[in-house]
Amino acid sequence: MVLLDLLGRRGALRIIWELRQDALTFRALQDAAELTPSTLNTRLKELRDARIVALGEGGYVLTAQGHELRQSLADLTSWADDWARDWGTDQAGDLH
User: Fold this and answer.
1) What is the mean pLDDT of the chain?
2) For a FRET experiment, which of 40, 41, 47, 82 has its CA 20 to 30 Å from that of 7?
3) pTM recorded for the entire structure
């Protein structure tokens, strides 16, 4: 449950999303994630402590675990889309 707590914090998922392809400097990540410097610093520290993000030569990057997490989140998104579509179909009769 510690991971879910971390991912639920402001900006955490956005940081993971923004780092999905390339390394980003602090400033570039701040602009992309639309976070204040304070919030970004806090989240990056937490994500680094959790070994999801690392600071490399080109900036911040997802670690191998970070990439695995991002893929798991993509799978969860796919499941959620299916669920929402099914739920919407099931609930359509209740909305009238």
Assistant:
1) 91
2) 82
3) 0.83
